[in-house]
Amino acid sequence: MGVRKAGPARRKTSPKKRAPESLQDPRLESAQAFLSAVVESSDDAIITKNLEGMITSWNRAAERIFGYKESEVKGKHISILIPAERLEEENEIISRIRRGVRVEHFETVRRAKDGRLLDLSITVSPIRNEHGVVIGASKIARDITDRRVDERRRRFLTDATASFSLSLDFESTVRSIVKVTVPAIADFSVLDLIRPDDKFERVSWANGVFHRSDFDEISRYAPPRFSPTHPVSRAFASGASVLVPAVDAEWIESMAISPEHARFLQRIGLQSVLTVLLMARGKTLGALTLYMAAESGRHHTRENVMLAEEFARRASEALENALLYRDAQNAVAEREKFLSIASHELKTPLTTLQLQLQGAIRMLRRKDPGAVEKSTALVENAEKQGMKIGKLVNELLDITQITSGKLRIQPESVDLSELARSVADHFSPELTDKGIALEVRAPEPVRGRWDRFRLDQVLTNLISNAIKYGNSKPITISVDNAPKVARMVVKDQGAGMEPSFLKRIFNPFEQGEPTGQHGGLGLGLFITRQIVESHGGKIAVTSRQGEGSMFTIELPRE
Amino acid sequence: MKRILIVDDDPEITASLAMLLKEKYNVGIASNGFSAIDKLKEADYDLILLDLLMPGLDGAGFVEALNERGNTTPILLISASKNAAEKARVLQATDYLLKPFLIDELEAKIDHLIGS
């Protein structure tokens, strides 16, 4: 229905002051024909009634608005149009009319033939006979249901936007997105967001009709990422809203993700579904699904789609802000955790270094017997602590480069077999010292274009770990040419790792148990993986408790 | 000679501390809370130097275990953690010292707590 304009021209042509029976004169007859035509073509209902409230005429618009034919209502009392709780209004109107007073633009509610309630603006004027005596009333009723609906919608959108601006917090934003839709545009609603792993997560839901315990199982039914029938999957696939005006059992059967999901939807009496997408800067963040249930008997219509889409635009903005805010908060928390671990780990060797230097200074000052030998040993040890600190600082710099995406690979021609032998050589003093055997099996050159310095770091890391956790048992490094890739395997026969820990070892800040025994930031394997992946390669690990661990790296040979 | 128990999981730190303190004190070493409890069963100590972050039973758990037994031995927390002061207050430790520290600083605190 279009928006009707109130025009002064139409107002002028309203029937007035003359009762039809007084029109006898032919000139007046043609005037009356003209008036009748105007009345019949009016968009507003024009009704006349006598002072007893009996309907005496009824135009075409009245038929359209109220649904009664003129023949059905002529001679009937006007109260057939008035809802019971508003019958008092008619007495008031009639008493004013008797006094010759007009009732103008009175906004009220009337009932149509089919029982629908109508928002109307009515103007009632007295009709007088030729002697000026009031003998009845003409009533012009304008259907303002659309205007009322528009007002309600505007208020809904304004309220929704206001509730979003209350918080930047992710949890409260998703909660308020679903909450404000109920009951305004849904009996219950659910928000599904797409996660970085490309799966839907049911983040929030709200309902206005069911008991919580009857409803909360909805959280279990996250939509499938791909499905030809589920409205959320369909909306994602098509990039547009999905409207199912009337749901039937067959439809529920086809879209349900499990028999219990279908039973749930049947039980709550699902009637109608509308899914709208939440998008920000060209990216689809998730979908809001608005459900109507048998409880309210409401169904979604085309008009709801536009309103829901407008709502989704506002919700998307709020959601995106909340997501950005959450990311920023996580980044800050991550950085704080990192700084706290980093400073703790740097302070440990620094404490030792200082104690050793202070001890050496004391001995030298006091000129103790054997002070030079003893303090030399202390200073040598202090130097090792200095090296350890240097290594930690380098790890910190690497991690800074990795997290800011600046880890650059400088490829050159490298023979991995030769590199493995040379890195192993660096460890020979430590290996001899600890009595550990290290075998390098690299029978042939394995060449490719890689970053020599970074691969040296990878090998150093893996060998250090094998020494740390290898229970002093033999370690082997094998390098060979596999189809298309260069393969390097570092294997120890130490304690091995628990399956639960194995999943996390390439994450930052993870360390073999017991914690603290080996120092370091727990960044070694994280950095190793980043380096391998920056080369377009892969790193994998297999481990058995009590039998040892095996790290396999594959690098593209191109 | 008064007796000091050093509880820290870093062997380099315990070795360096022991080297410096053994001139004036009788020093025992434990690498975590559990082994510290064992040490305390073997002998009495006048002071405990305690790290917080340790595998097994950590510093906080160790102090709680001691407090339950009605501990009276003064405890000096030695930690790299920036909230060591707060930890010391919560655990009712006698005092705390932040890593890294000067040996003179440590000796002054020990002297203040138990004398030499």
Biggest sheet, spatial arrangement of strands of chain B? 2-1-3-4-5
| Main beta sheet of chain B | 5 strands, parallel
Chain pair sharing the greatest interface: A-B, 24 and 21 residues
Q: How many DSSP-defined strands of chain A?
A: 17
Shape of chain B: globular
- Total beta-strand segments of chain B: 5
- Binned strand content of chain A: 15-25%
Explain this structure to me?
The complex is a heterodimer of chains A (558) and B (116). Chain A is of the alpha+beta class. Chain A contains 18 helices and 17 strands. In chain A, the strands form 4 sheets. In chain A, strands 2-1-5-4-3 form a 5-stranded antiparallel beta sheet, sandwiched between helices. In chain A, strand 6 (188-194) and strand 7 (200-207) form a beta hairpin. In chain A, helix 6 (145-164) packs parallel to helix 12 and helix 7 (170-179) packs antiparallel against helix 12 (302-366). The longest helix of chain A is centred in the middle third of the chain and has 65 residues, at 302-366. Chain A is elongated, with a radius of gyration of 41 Å. The model of chain A is unreliable at 1-19 and 513-518 (pLDDT under 50). Chain B is of the alpha/beta class and 116 residues long. In chain B, 44% of the residues lie in helices and 20% in strands. Chain B has 5 helices and 5 strands, in the order βαβαβαβαβα. A 5-stranded parallel beta sheet of chain B has the order 2-1-3-4-5, sandwiched between helices. In chain B, strand 3 (47-50), helix 3 (59-68) and strand 4 form a beta-alpha-beta unit. Chain B is globular and about 30 Å long. The termini of chain B are close together. Chain A binds chain B through residues 340, 343-344, 347-356, 358-359, 362, 381, 385, 513-517, 519, and chain B through 9-10, 12-13, 16-17, 19-20, 53-56, 80-82, 99-104.
